[in-house]
């Protein structure tokens, strides 16, 4: 009898799989299934906790690599070795035991390259060999889809290629991070930077793109421009128009006015009135990036919050797989969406007349669906009661996806565009007006406030009175002065498209569709994590959804300027080659060989590149900010506590005072105010969300206190333990 073991990526995924079958036994590390038609002898589901296995640290290869020295670079292990991640031995050993007992092992991790990496890194670490390995490949956790997936398992040929791609990516990021971070940190510390820099193959060029936008704004010089505007009064009302001239030279515009003998108050004549019916089709279905951009614009959600929220809705089996980069579905998904149309409409309480139930290539194209299809609702239509228990974020995201999907079946948005040409002494003025005929799919998106693009669209058009060709109008014509404006800073949501298109401007859907084929920074699954990483390293700050480069970020960008770490296009080419490995058209050896050459080039060239005066100026700014005293030192009563890299220390440290405070404690950043409160009051306010290292313990709230020995302790609010 064959024993089947299924590895899920995480416990919630394992539970979703087990919900599709009859459960025989539950254990803290596995779920055993009863025999059924799919598994005649039953099966066992176990799980990772994300990555159970990780690359070893440099010091675990060679002790001398444990100390940061320029002479140790480059760090290039002859063979890359892995270890069980800290705190995950118990689950790893449970998986190892089950793998040894298995005849068939099924990879049920997420269906992307990281899912393949998680499975095979665990499998190889167990030392198990010679097992039959199959791959579960599904886009939904609904019972029917799970059962169908296990009935139609894939072989592991594609899976092994994705693992090779992901492992190569993991090693290359390790190499660039370990070598680059040490190189730049040590060289800049020689110049007085009291901080460390984190260098990354993707995070560094991403930060550089943000820095470039900062420079565009900072160096922008406003310039005046001149236009000619006409205010017209017709028999049935007033309207405005503009002449086709926009010039930086005031005299050029004035010459045109003089040429047509325009005094300012002249009689004009309506030269032409044309009307055209315009139709706008509903937006494309959501990929992860478009959903992240939409949610950021509408609710200011960060890309990570959107990904986490869609993942929760996927785990609840009401949305399809989140980490997708396509906006298309196949005819299979279209069929069930069409069949459930009335149920979906009941959920949004809007029974609209369906325009068509035939699949349109705009949305349904199997040739453009590779691993995953667009994010759409699953067959499982939640009840209103289930919707009510969702969080606000989950409801917002679910209905955004649902309405975008339903819009595919709705009518076009229809409006009439009116173009008017008004002649004043031979000078033509153009006017565009818009009259809404049918809201169509737009009725599904009646949000409380219009977004900026809608407001801009309305500003460029106007409601027009009834106008007739040949009609005479009174005109007030004048020259109008305007000023050019700088580019706007990125919002957090715009960073996703900035990365996807390597910083190319994306102003409308048509441009975006063209640029979707361009390889960008990172992947659909990793971009939000990269943004979180550069926030964590304090290279950028997000204030009121606007992204700002920090002084530390400026130092990084000025330091990498001119080499490949600042080149988004080069990093995009690297990502393109990684995909070739996943397709079987590239080799890990070739890619890692190019990374090795790159590291040698960095070590050779960077010392000379860091002599720029602007780098030293920014280091001096950071030093000055970090040396600002927070409070009198409670230990020596002489020095002052200030920021020192990633922690707080006394200015008398060199003279023997060893008082320090951590910059981070149990996953919470400790702020300057909290350190000041500790020094002056002996206690902070309640800090929410401390996260213990022990996995079975929940987050807790506490006040930090300064104990008699001047170390930090916890004091718990009474209400936290009032009820059991």
TrEMBL record:
Q: What is its EC number?
A: 5.6.2.1
Keyword annotations from UniProtKB, A to Z: DNA-binding, Isomerase, Magnesium, Metal-binding, Topoisomerase
Task: Identify the Pfam families for this entry.
Answer: Topoisom_bac (PF01131), Toprim (PF01751), Toprim_Crpt (PF13342)
Give the top-level enzyme category.
isomerase
Q: Name one GO biological process term.
A: DNA topological change
Q: What InterPro entries does the record point to?
A: Topo_IA, Topo_IA_2, Topo_IA_AS, Topo_IA_cen, Topo_IA_cen_sub1, Topo_IA_cen_sub2, Topo_IA_cen_sub3, Topo_IA_core_domain
Give the CC-aspect GO terms.
cytoplasmic replication fork
Kindly give the SUPFAM superfamilies that the UniProt entry links to this protein: Prokaryotic type I DNA topoisomerase (SSF56712)
Domain (Topo IA-type catalytic) spans 159-603
Q: Which reaction does it catalyse?
A: ATP-independent breakage of single-stranded DNA, followed by passage and rejoining
Question: Which molecular function GO terms apply here?
Answer: DNA binding; DNA topoisomerase type I (single strand cut, ATP-independent) activity; metal ion binding
Q: Which family does it belong to?
A: Belongs to the type IA topoisomerase family.
- Protein's name according to its UniProt entry: DNA topoisomerase
What is the organism of origin for this protein? Fictibacillus arsenicus
